[in-house]
Amino acid sequence: MFFSLEIHYIIWLLLGMALLLSLVWVVWYNRRSMRLLKFMKVEERTRRYLFPEDLPSVSILVFANDDETWLNKFLPTLMQQKYPSAFEVIVLDDASVDGTKDLVGEMMAYYDHLKIVTVPDQTRALSRKKLAVMLGIKAAQHDVVLTTNANCQVHSDRWLMAMMRNFGPGVDVVLGYSHFAHKEDNRLGKTYRIFDDMVTSMQWLVSAINGKPYRGTSDNLAYRKELFYKNKGFSNSLDIKWGDDDIFVSEIATAQNTRLEILPASFMTAHYDDLPHAFSTLKSRRDFTSHFVKYKSQFRTQAFMSLLYYLRLAAIAGAVALAYTNIAVIVMAALILLITWLPSMLVTFRNCYLLHLPLLFFSTPVMVLVRPFVNSYYKIKGLFTRKNNYTSIM
Q1: Per residue in 180-227, pLDDT tens?
Q2: Which ranges of the chain would DSSP assign to H, the alpha helix?
Q3: Measured between alpha carbons, how far is 125 from 115 in angstroms, rounded to an integer?
Q4: DSSP state of 87
Q5: Could you tell me which residues are beta bridge partners of residue 381?
Q6: What does the pLDDT read at residue 124?
Q7: Which of 131, 220, 302, 358 could form an S-S bond across to 268 if both were Cys, CB 3.0 to 4.6 Å?
Q8: d(CA 103, CA 67)
Q9: So what's the pLDDT on residue 239?
């Protein structure tokens, strides 16, 4: 081993390219994070909201499929929201065979604003979720509907106020935020699931902030019934089992009629008995429905920046391979790696903090490296399971 700055120009070229690509990647990764931070700390706090006395009446639609346990835990929090206007909660029972009906029936004796709508078991040729939502909207008394799921937990009795305060003139859609209950996940791959949840959320949240809303989450999504009927409901995707939030939002949401609500009081946490399985299932569904959303630039940008990330690693590896005995080259290569790793770790830490996810830091470089391969796996898997995403009416 020796130390020398008399290095072949090809090595200098490789190191220079690696440095440039590192800076580009760091700026891009940080820029998205700063956009969310600015929105949360400045823009959201300064825009106009409805006064409490002007809040609209709302119907909360809670989809349930054998979810007696989750309803028993989380439904009372929905029923006891502090809301100055009228609201009702409609449980959409997807032909449950557990005690869902009995539980809701018992609660209805205590809450006169609680209802239940049962989805017929015979209609298996249709999307069960979409059919349930359509029946719920028809049964809803109020002009605004807010969809969620039985396994979703609100953490504030002002969740409803936080979501509904956005429905001023011209606003027809409000996108809320939800994340997995990662703290309950103790299985292998937990760190990756947290990281992927963070990256995916950052994509659609920042896209909505920038005036290009292309998806929401059915855990926490509100819109006007009038807009639903104007769009003819889910008619454009009735042959697809999924997409009641992302495909539908992509159809109805615009920069002018949509707001993103990111106040912590509005956050939802989605619980699952088997979170790794649920994560994999939902990721496969999202990968499929992403082909039908109107804004795809965020996917292409993500793929391009991943390519740059690998190119910088290749350039660094090439430089070290050509001069592995030169300590100067090794030191410069290490510094270039740190130029990417340290800022990206800080950005990931900040994103997790803002989105109320378990905090990640040191794992960031590995997760960034692994995620494109995992995404490729789901895309390849999707090629062989594509027909499973369609109803039998296709």
Answers
A1: 999 999 999 999 999 999 999 999 999 999 999 999 999 999 999 999
A2: 9-38, 44-46, 68-79, 100-108, 128-139, 159-164, 190-209, 225-230, 246-252, 275-289, 297-322, 327-354, 364-385
A3: 26
A4: E
A5: none
A6: 59
A7: 220
A8: 10
A9: 87
Report the alpha-carbon distance of residue 292 to residue 248 in Å, rounded.
Answer: 10
DSSP state for residue 129 in the 8-state scheme: H
Q: Which residues pair with 92 in a beta bridge?
A: 63, 117
**Distance between CA atoms of 258 and 164, rounded to whole angstroms?**
12
3-class secondary structure, 104 = helix
Whole-prediction pTM value? 0.95
The DSSP bridge partners found for residue 180 are 270
pLDDT of res. 315: 97
Nearest to 60 by CA among 100, 85, 101, 88: 88
131: which 2 tokens? 């059919």
Q: How far apart are CA 390 and CA 99, in angstroms?
A: 30
User: Does the pLDDT value for residue 119 go beyond 80?
Assistant: yes
- Token pair recorded at residue 366: 């590995």
CA distance 22 to 334: 12
Residues 329-363: b if buried by 16+ CB within 10 A, e if exposed = bbebbeebbebbbebbbebbbbbbebbebbebeee
Token reading at 52: 């409490």
Q: How confident is the model at residue 394 (pLDDT cuts 50, 70, 90)?
A: very low
Determine contact, residues 256/171, Cβ cutoff 8 Å: no
Q: Are 196 and 287 in contact (CB under 8 A)?
A: no
Cβ contact 155:162 at 8 Å: no
CA distances from 1 to 95, 318, 325 (A): 72, 18, 5
Residue 114 and residue 75: Cα distance in Å, rounded? 10
- pLDDT tens digits, residue range 5-28? 778 889 999 999 999 999 999 999
Distance, in Å, from the CA atom of 131 to the CA atom of 141, rounded to the nearest integer, reads 18
Percent of the chain whose predicted confidence (pLDDT) is above 70: 98
User: Where does 326-363 have alpha helices with state H?
Assistant: 327-354
d(CA 87, CA 142): 8
